[in-house]
Model the fold of this input.
Amino acid sequence: MVAVVLGGGVGTRFGAARPKQLLTLAGRTLVEHCVSAFAEAPGIDETLLVMPADYHAEARKLVGDQVSVIIEGGVTRSDSVRNALAYLAGRYREAETGVLFHDAARPLVTQQIIADCAAALEKHDAIGTAVPTSDTILVVADGVIASVPPRETLYRAQTPQGFRLETIARAHALAAADPAFTPTDDCGVVLRYLPDVPVHIVRGSERNIKVTYPSDLPIAEALLRT
Done:
């Protein structure tokens, strides 16, 4: 089982001078929290890190030998995933290898979530971590509510997302040939380009938040203390 920590973005929505994955949370950077979680997880044989090229040296000092390689990030998340897939090609038997992709902006991923994702990949070709929404979700068109989907069918996506290596490689190869598609996550790539492959849900955690805006950092700090 291979883990890929995706820190290839520069965090434009966060508004910081540095990529948000290099910001500090409880004395360690977000990327350190994520890498350590996977490096310490039983069943993870190798951990890869994707980072912008200008920050490779700094990242190596932070994570040391917890990662086998630091890969250059792409312009989009999908580009970063494809760069990781290109590195993995030929190194593993695609039909036998599971790979977990995790956002470096989710520093509170737990060992339980990682273990559950790894176990699910023993039985399924594609899995996504998610939690049920507690809010009513509105579908809006032109500022008007168009529909209210049943809340019991709605989940909020988290990471890790996991796949058989051959599954996600094939899905991304198809997506790369479609310039009209701009996916925001890898489950969406599989759903669109490999519709016959079911994507199973692994239960996430309300603690597994994504640090997207500055206001998310104190929330993550508070969660670490509980």
